[in-house]
Amino acid sequence: TRAGAEALALEVGDFQPGRLADFVHWRPPARSTLAAVLAHAEAPERQLSALFTMAGSESVRAGYIEGEPVP
Predict the structure, then answer these.
(1) How many angstroms separate the Cα of 22 from the Cα of each of 11, 26, 44, 49?
(2) Torsional class of 5: left (φ above 0), alpha (ψ -120 to 50), beta (otherwise)
(3) At what angle are helices 33-40 and 44-54 packed, to 10 degrees?
(4) Which of 18, 20, 48 is nearest to 34 (CA)?
(5) 10 versus 30: which is more confidently predicted?
(6) How open is the CA angle 24-47-33, to the nearest 5 degrees?
(7) I need a labelling partner for 4 at 20 to 30 A (CA). Which of 19, 21, 31, 68 fits?
(8) Cα–Cα dist 15/36, whole Å
(9) pLDDT tens-digit profile of 1-12?
């Protein structure tokens, strides 16, 4: 995030107090295949890959744009 922002000369890409953020809170259903994959992933990269390929709307608990909840 930070490196991409610097490459584009943007002052974004960090998690500092007072900064705005867009993000999604993921929590797959208990006993789902995704939950099992995430529990056994050996690296954050594998967890992220699993979220990108396996997660659907059932795994989204909340979304935020500029720090505000999305209804």
Answers:
(1) 15, 13, 20, 19
(2) alpha
(3) 170
(4) 48
(5) 30
(6) 95
(7) 68
(8) 29
(9) 678 888 888 877
